[in-house]
Amino acid sequence: MVPPVRSRAEDVRPLLEMAAIRKSFPGVMAISSATFDLYTGEIHALVGENGAGKSTLIKILTGVHQMDAGSIRLDERPVSFRRPVDAQQAGIATIYQEFTLVPALTVAANIFLGHEVTGNGLLDHRRENRLAAELLGRLGAEFDPDTCVSDLTVAQMQIVEIARALARDAGILVMDEPTAALAPQEVSHLFGVLKELSGRGMGTIFISHRLDEVMAMADRITVMRDGATITTRGVDDFTRTDLIEQMVGRPIEQEYPRNTASPGETGFEVRSLSGGTVRDISFTARRGEVLGLAGLMGAGRTEVARLIFGADRKASGEILLDGRRLDISSPRDAIRSGVCLLTEDRKAQGLVLKASAKDNFALANLASWSRLGWIHQRREQRRFADRTASLNIRLAHSDQPAEELSGGNQQKLLVARWLETNSEVILFDEPTRGIDVGAKYDMYLLIGELAAQGKVVIVISSELPELLGICDRILVMRRGQVAGEVCDASKGTQEEIMALAV
Ligand SMILES: Nc1ncnc2c1ncn2[C@@H]1O[C@H](COP(=O)(O)OP(=O)(O)OP(=O)(O)O)[C@@H](O)[C@H]1O
Ligand SMILES: [Mg+2]
Known about the structure:
Layout: E1 14-25, E2 28-39, E3 43-48, H1 54-61, E4 69-74, E5 77-79, H2 84-89, E6 92-95, H3 107-111, E7 118-119, E8 122-123, H4 125-138, H5 154-167, E9 172-176, H6 184-199, E10 203-207, H7 211-217, E11 220-225, E12 228-234, H8 240-248, E13 266-275, E14 278-286, E15 290-295, H9 301-309, E16 316-321, E17 324-325, H10 331-336, E18 339-342, H11 357-362, H12 366-369, E19 370-371, E20 374-375, H13 377-390, H14 407-419, E21 425-429, H15 437-452, E22 456-460, H16 464-470, E23 473-478, E24 481-486, H17 494-501
Parallel strand pairs: 3-10, 3-11, 6-9, 9-10, 15-22, 15-23, 18-21, 21-22
Antiparallel strand pairs: 1-2, 1-4, 4-5, 7-8, 11-12, 13-14, 13-16, 16-17, 19-20, 23-24
Bound molecules: adenosine-5'-triphosphate and magnesium ion.
Magnesium ion is lined by residues 54-55, 406-407.
């Protein structure tokens, strides 16, 4: 395997070597053959489509799952971890998307949880606070060690998790999609921190579906496809197109298919909508149009969507569809009026994790499919098969519990479910977050298809290339208001949007 060329550490040696790893779950070969290594001072990205086996490989490394075959060497010695705590003790710190911090404790207490600083056998809070402040300082954090974790933002919690890894002297940092919930300025702060840590010899494994971040951050990239590692190369040996083709296993012509529908009449109108931090927003959207909503985190994009959908109470404002006023004061009203919202939060959106994929799919529409209380089983099965095929949802079988699906496939399952409600106005909040490049493309096609059917499609996204690529028009929000508009998204630029957003 090619060692890293851009490693920043002075003494470059292998920290980790995983070879010929194999792992299956009942009915699923999650990893058929994976090889992965990591050097000191290196950021090694692991990329691949949803369900390719990335998280499983990480869970094998961190003692969550046991491999069926293969070997792991750490600092050139064979190891195998039976439990996550064994991996932690060996210096592997893993930062999951769901944080493991205790919200009711202070930052310092969390950093030293499980290996408290003591003096004369007593807990030494003063010293803990001082050490924590030092670590936080190194990470450029702007909050105190005695802040309660429940008062922190997601980005700040992530920094606390990293501080905890440093306090434990971890040599390997594993991050599975760390930037999914961060704002752009928070992402660049995190990246600064990671570069600094690699300069000191830390090895980082970085999983992300955001390829621009991967290309900017990684020294090497390993691509996984269908449970196998396909290639490992220095980042300079990949073009973006190469990388995508390796991931999906076929050539891709264009990343962003543009909406080809010609927008018709004004279908949807929002007049003087206020509520929460949203102040007096008005806009229209035409049938067949894909309208983007851009803005920084906290600008109020999600709030606008939630107000329209009736998930939050509006202080004032009117919502009209085809000139008719809609009376929406709850999500139930919204769905009945033909308005639906796809949020990016899979759990809050009510994926029933223990239930099968098919039952989760059927949930949206129990009422409309049942006649005299009887569900049309055959019809449901057929629609489910159609949707899983068109969205390319990877399942071992239709009765597989939702919790066993990879993150991206869970997201697609939710989309499939909402599409069954036959809405006229579809609000997508970060529709491609956490889903792979091939699935993103499928999602864009689907958005275009909805527009072609004459629906009103509104897309909220933090990924500006995505908005510019698939929307007809983009509204830019700032502090709860519409700050401006990019009338022709095909001619817009990221700079133009950013200038309006900040
Ligand atoms: N606990 C489990 N039981 C059964 N199957 C599982 C389990 N965990 C993962 N799988 C299956 O193993 C395969 C690999 O999943 P994994 O979560 O590793 O994918 P991933 O590359 O991390 O995808 P994503 O990008 O969507 O997070 C998938 O087919 C998944 O359904
Ligand atoms: Mg994963």
